[in-house]
């Protein structure tokens, strides 16, 4: 069923680069920077922002008039999978170490999609998604660099595939529950 919904999303946005971001609409998630980055993008981009939170109304006001951006509201598990399948690029614009890991980032990578992230000293985000391997990391809050990274991925399908494949492999090898159990068992044995 998710594949059908994903195909519908792709058909509704035929010829577009589908970008997806999802999470609570709170300051550290950095959605305002994704909205600002959109101003540097052309009309081939479609940016879907899922989730809700205290900043939702402000974010919608900031994006007013930008036809590239759509707010999805709360996204069901079924629709979340469909957007992960349909997207070309995952946008993870978190800006502070309040973002300790990035579950949505790892989920997107599991679906074989490259991500664009900001550098966040002290956060696990840049450990989850390795710059140049699974996605592109840019200086924190640099919206022009963020947009440039999105354009680079949009213009190079083979790069998107290569990074997506590497990201999926990284998640499978490092972040699934079986791997966590195995790592803990090794740690306990080594003690």
Describe this structure in words.
This protein has a 6-stranded parallel β-sheet with strand order 3-2-1-4-5-6, with helices on both faces. The protein has a single domain, classed as Glycogen Phosphorylase B (Rossmann fold). β2, α3 and β3 form a beta-alpha-beta unit. α1 packs across α4, α2 packs across α7 and α5 packs across α8. It has about 190 residues and is an alpha/beta fold.
- Indicate the CATH architecture: 3-Layer(aba) Sandwich
Class per helix and strand makeup: alpha/beta
Number of strands: 6
Number of domains: 1
The CATH class designation is Alpha Beta
Oligomer: single chain
Strand order of the largest sheet: 3-2-1-4-5-6
Q: What is the CATH H-level superfamily? A: Glycogen Phosphorylase B
Q: Looking at the structure, what is the overall shape?
A: globular
Short description:
The protein is an alpha/beta fold and 191 residues long.
């Amino acid at each position: 069923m998710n594949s059908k919904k994903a195909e519908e999303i792709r058909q509704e946005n035929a010829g577009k680069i589908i970008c997806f971001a999802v999470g609570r609409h709170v300051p550290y998630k950095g959605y305002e920077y994704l909205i600002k980055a959109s101003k540097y993008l052309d009309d081939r981009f479609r940016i879907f922002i899922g989730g809700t939170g205290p900043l939702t109304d402000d974010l919608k006001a900031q994006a007013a008039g930008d036809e590239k951006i759509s707010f999805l509201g709360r996204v069901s598990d079924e629709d979340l999978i469909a957007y992960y399948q349909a997207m070309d690029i995952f946008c993870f614009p978190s800006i502070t170490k309040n973002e300790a890991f990035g579950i949505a980032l790892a989920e997107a990578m599991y679906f074989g999609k490259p991500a664009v992230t900001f550098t966040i000293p002290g956060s696990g985000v840049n450990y989850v998604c390795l710059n140049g391997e699974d996605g592109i990391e840019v200086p924190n809050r640099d919206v022009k660099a963020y947009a440039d990274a999105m354009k680079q991925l949009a213009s190079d399908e083979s790069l998107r595939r290569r990074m997506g494949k590497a990201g999926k492999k990284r998640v499978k090898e490092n972040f699934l529950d079986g791997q966590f159990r195995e790592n803990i068992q090794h740690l306990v044995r080594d003690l």
